[in-house]
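Quick one: structure tokens for this chain, please?
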Amino acid sequence: MALYLNQLSASDVMVELRLSRKIYHPEFLGSSQPTFQADLVQTYHFVAERPIPETGEYLYTITLQPEWCGGLKYQIRAYPHHELLYHPHEMGMMLWV
């Protein structure tokens, strides 16, 4: 994945992959109640590899071998990162890709 960082450094941006799957409870399928679904989520971090001089973007990579099988949902997000932030998402500048 490549991101244009304008004048930020690669360490100023965190890129994450959120992997989720649904848990279905078959005991609810025969009843009149709706099927209960709960999401299980794991988060993986991309690694900042190198700048791409031709485009001005920065290349982020990830090597992933999920522990789960079956239908999985992948979501990628990027947001500002600094160790002095109180909460990782406090700036409210998250971009879902």
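The CA atoms of residues 16 and 71 lie 19 Å apart.
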